[in-house]
Write the structure tokens for this entry.
Amino acid sequence: MLLQYDLNLYEQYQAMQQPSVEQAITSIAIHTTPTDVKAIMGATILPQQFLVSEEEAANYIFSEARKHWGRLPEALHDMLASQFIKVEVIHEALDDFFYTAQGKARFLAYLRQHQTMTLSQLLQLLFQRTIDLPMLSLQQIHLYPVANKYIVHFIYKEQNIFWYALLYKKIYSLFIHEPLATMPKITGMLKQLNLAKKISYAHVDNFTAIYSEQLKQLVAFIATYNPLSNALKQLELGVLFILAQHKVHNGEWIIKKIKALRLWNTSEHVLTKTEKVALRYVLLQVHATRKEFGKVISNAHYLLTDECLNNYAVKIMLTYEEVLPTFSPTTHTLIKRYDKNYMEQLYYYYFEALVALKKYQEALHVLKLDPLASTTLLFRIIHKEENNKALDQWQSYQLPPLDVHIQQQSMHYINQMVKIFDSTTYKGLARRLKQLSDKVKETQIKKV
């Protein structure tokens, strides 16, 4: 069961010779979007057209979920059998779930907590195990509270781009028309706006640069019409972390925004320690991109002192998952992607800055403290638990074709190590690492 506004807009969109969500919204609008607002992310939708009561939300969600997920199509039966799952068992569980008040309550409780649900997540809720399934006709259900109302939104496989574009328009419209204080799930809503915008408009030329400017304008507009609050802080932090993924283009704005956020320390909406650490990590990256090496070093000191970054990493990942790269560290080799793990990336930028400013003794001190700063083998050599010849066997291996990012980052990092060791008391180690750097340079690049 579709919301009436969604149905009307979809029919208008389908009837157009050249379908456009923007034009469809404008053609059925009951208001005129002000020019200054339209310049941000286009026309808005009045929230009264799509916000519904709690009872209406529950009815829409349950009706649509039961219609699309109440029975699994035969095409999936073999796939489930390969996972040792009986279709009959799933159907019995779905019947118990969809046709009882208890099931309805569990469904809504899950959505209130997580805001989104897929069929795989529903089955995981029922069976407490992961069940791999392709996306069916109904791909996702979204639910977000706004004061005493709710956004209910469905993402369908058919005309997928339309449904993502409409989701982004709804969230954007709420940010423009409603007080932020009425939205307790700001971070989740912003995350979905970002994802939906990318999916529905990624085909646009120069999308990243255009979208970055739109987000900056959106934050400026919202800050003008909303008082200082925790909700506004979460929105500004969320946008900042999105823009930090494109540091080269947004560095100046990020630095100014962080300075402005720090002034909030004089109000009751003080930055938490977790937020401060996350912002320091972003600053480290921005200053590294801008070759501001003294500032890279000062931020690295902050993040490494008393294992500050490690102590707050989990909290940062849970709230702002895009800030820290979370692949497991690889301490057995220097040949890797240094931007895939947050500590390895930190050391990558830190050593680049130390070498640039010829702070070789400080760099050596750091290498002696943590094997993650180089490799377990180099750490043992520095501490005289192995000798330099231990590197010979390591370097005798034939390297497979390398990803271009691995080659470039590995050569850069190894060359920093060469300069550090050559400028201290480890010249033999420096010579061996120089040989490794040359070997990486000559290695064939993996074809994409």
The longest strand covers residues 138-146. The beta strands are 51-52, 116-117, 138-146, 149-156.
